[in-house]
Amino acid sequence: ILAQVCQTRCLCPQEPPMCAPGVQLILDDCACCLVCARQKGEACSEISPCDTHRGLNCDYTADVHQRTGVCVAHEGDICLLDGSVYQNGETFFPSCKYQCTCRDGQIACVPHCPLPRKVAPQPEASALGSFAMAGKHSVYLTNCIEQTTEWGACSRTCGMSISTRVTNKNPRCEMVKQTRLCIVRPCDKHSRMFLR
């Protein structure tokens, strides 16, 4: 049982494990070693986490001490928008401009119209959905639903590496990939030689 919990010092193999086809190599929940993601029905723990990219999480209910569990499919949380409830995986149209999908309590939307048309602003029209003049450039003002993912795991287990996320928080409301530097922990002498 003690081998299934995080140790105070990382004891990782020199070579990352070889995973079965289709199984991802991920960082364990101790943020220590690269391991093969556990699949549905397999035993899991802090050092053997489930494949969250496939919607799996470690169910510890069978173990009173919560040291080991079994990977189960996460049902997903519901989404609430303007008083309406949407089930995980449900696709809906909050307006004629967007098609949205509920994903585990988060709402992801894409434009429903192929491309917005430029129309001269009407004095009685609201700012949403029309063009406004800003200097010599026309700027499309839209009711963009902001979407930003969490920052991903660092690309290396030690030393300087990168983390990425996707967001549409920009003037054009387009999904773009952002990158930042990150560090999980410093590399020891042996790890530095292995990463070169």
How many DSSP-defined strands?
14
Q: Structural class of the helix and strand makeup?
A: mainly beta
User: What is the mean predicted local confidence, pLDDT?
Assistant: 76
How much of the polypeptide forms β-strand, as a percent range?
25-35%
CATH class annotation of the largest domain: Few Secondary Structures
Low-confidence stretches: 122-141, 192-196
Biggest sheet: strands side by side, in what order? 3-5-4
Q: Radius of gyration, Cα only, in angstroms?
A: 23 Å
The span between the termini is: 34 Å
H/E series:
EEEEEEEEEEEEEEH
Number of helices: 1
- CATH-defined fold name of the largest domain: Omega-AgatoxinV
The number of distinct structural domains comes to: 3
Shape: globular
Q: In terms of topology, how is this protein built?
A:
Blueprint: E1 25-27, E2 34-36, E3 43-44, E4 56-59, E5 69-73, E6 79-81, E7 84-86, E8 91-95, E9 98-103, E10 106-111, E11 131-134, E12 137-140, E13 160-167, E14 176-183, H1 189-195
Antiparallel strand pairs: 1-2, 3-5, 4-5, 6-7, 8-9, 9-10, 11-12, 13-14
Structural summary, described in words:
- By secondary structure, the chain is mainly beta.
- The model is unreliable at 122-141 and 192-196 (pLDDT under 50).
- A hairpin with a 2-residue loop joins strand 11 (131-134) and strand 12 (137-140).
- The protein contains 1 helix and 14 strands; from the N terminus they run ββββββββββββββα.
- The chain is 4% helix and 33% strand.
- The strands form 6 sheets. The protein has a 3-stranded antiparallel beta sheet with strand order 3-5-4, with no helix packed on it. The chain has a 3-stranded antiparallel beta sheet with strand order 8-9-10, with no helix packed on it.
- It has 3 domains: 1-74, Omega-AgatoxinV (Irregular); 79-114, Complement Module, domain 1 (Ribbon), CATH 2.10.70; 146-196, Single Sheet (TSP-1 type 1 repeat).
- The chain starts with 24 loop residues before the first strand and ends with a helix.
- The longest helix is centred in the C-terminal third of the chain and has 7 residues, at 189-195.
